[in-house]
Amino acid sequence: MKTTALIMAGGRGERFWPMSRKSMPKQFLSLTGTDQTMIQSTVERILPLVAMEDIYIATNREYRELIRKQLPEIPEANILCEPMAKNTAPCIGWGAVTIRKKYGDAMMIVLPSDHLVQQQTLFRRVLKNAVRTAEETGGLVTLGISPKTPDTGYGYIQYDTEEGTGFESAFRVKRFVEKPNLETAKAYLASGEYLWNSGMFIWKASAILKEMEEKLPGNYELLEKIEKAIGTEAEEETVESAFAQMQSISIDYGVMEKAENVYVLPSSFGWDDVGSWLAVGRINPGNDMGNVIKGDIVSVNTARCIVQGGKKMIAMVGMEDTIVVDTEDALLVCAKDSAGDIKKVLEVLRAVNRTELL
């Protein structure tokens, strides 16, 4: 069966402000120490498994030209530009009906565009096993990351450690759980039954659409209208109308938490979701004081800081556990333990109508 991929690239990356902006969000930036942008890296790591012409990008309209510039090999018809943000279930559904329309049915690998995978060969091996599991079971498959710490920043997956499929460590999922508090996360880690939810999925297009028909019937009816309109003059108008009516809901809430035939492959391939500036500190080597720095930086008695310089020299004296990001029109100075509040800066900027900084 044909294997395809849908890469989700519509996010704003607000926790990476001020480098990530509405006009250039983080998936189109290089944040992981390579010359490639994050979406370019995502495409490259799956190319041995999926042909370029079978890779689809789900994004919004304002990023069409960015994708064409950074991924010129992707066919124009494979860039699915959502007219409005409606979370992951509608965008995955649109990808699924587009693939069903073209191929009748096919395997789908669904990936975020902004993750880091350091062990590429191992990742592809796990992904290949996941595709085989999804094809042979007809179920919904996800990749779970074996946790190393009791992290409170991820959702978790509880799985049945005894009930495997026989296809190289694929196990039945018991339940998906939300981001826990620290004590709960410690209990999850100690039990050995929980994995971090990576947000990566593998299934047949027909399998996910069947689940959507049952779990999200209103959205599914609208997706059917889109499918019928694909390739006609009414396609753009139909997509616009359908998205306006769809329920905005994530694939986790809308389908995965309610589905029964769900499997997970416990995985460990150097994964990071690169969710905030703290990730830059995790994935890049620090100097002898634990500082991760880029640019013209002078540091004196400064430790465990993340510094992204711009055109000017930055001098830091007596600083600890601080994030500093300099751009042409904005400077961020943030305590590491407040990194989750960076999005609140954007709320203030919107409130005072400083839209040129968003």
Automatic annotation (TrEMBL):
Q: Keywords, A to Z?
A: Nucleotidyltransferase, Transferase
Superkingdom of this protein's organism: Bacteria
Asked if the record carries the keyword Transferase, the reply is yes
Q: Please identify the protein, giving its name as recorded.
A: Mannose-1-phosphate guanylyltransferase
- Species the sequence originates in: Aristaeella lactis
The upper taxonomy is: Bacteria, Bacillati, Bacillota, Clostridia, Eubacteriales
